[in-house]
């Protein structure tokens, strides 16, 4: 099979490739930061991870994942397949709901009232994803 020609590569493909790379990088960095936080000594661990990418978003790993999925849709759009936008759109709606459920579960299972209070302060100053 042929991979096609590079002549079919356009500006949208370049944007999509950059988005895919950015999304993967954000996810990898956020997951690495979360792993490091989870493995801190209990006495040294702050109640909430609010450093690195977690300073800008309460779920930067989800942000990276969404950027990655939307980049795939952009590759398809570059070939005229606008219907491909439906997948990441539905995925985004589902992940928004899952994000809400995740936070509710965390807050309901944490035994430290101080940690819950700190997370609520963190939530007031930090968006769930980036803009909301």
From TrEMBL:
A Pfam family annotated for this UniProt entry: DUF1295
Record bears the keyword Coiled coil: no
GO terms under cellular component: membrane
Transmembrane segments: 6-30
Sorted UniProt keywords: Membrane, Transmembrane, Transmembrane helix
Domain of life: Eukaryota
Stated name of the protein: Steroid 5-alpha reductase C-terminal domain-containing protein
């Amino acid at each position: 099979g042929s991979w096609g020609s590079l002549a079919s590569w356009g500006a949208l493909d370049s944007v999509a490739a950059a988005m895919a790379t950015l999304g993967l990088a954000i996810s990898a960095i956020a997951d690495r930061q979360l792993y490091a936080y989870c493995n801190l000594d209990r006495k040294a661990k702050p109640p909430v991870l609010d450093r690195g990418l977690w300073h800008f978003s309460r779920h930067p790993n989800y942000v990276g994942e969404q950027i990655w999925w939307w980049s795939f849709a952009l590759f398809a759009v570059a070939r005229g397949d606008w219907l491909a936008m439906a997948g990441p759109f539905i995925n985004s709606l589902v992940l928004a709901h899952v994000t809400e459920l995740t936070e509710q579960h965390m807050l309901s299972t944490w035994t430290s009232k101080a940690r819950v209070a700190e997370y609520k302060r963190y939530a007031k100053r930090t968006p769930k994803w980036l803009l909301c």
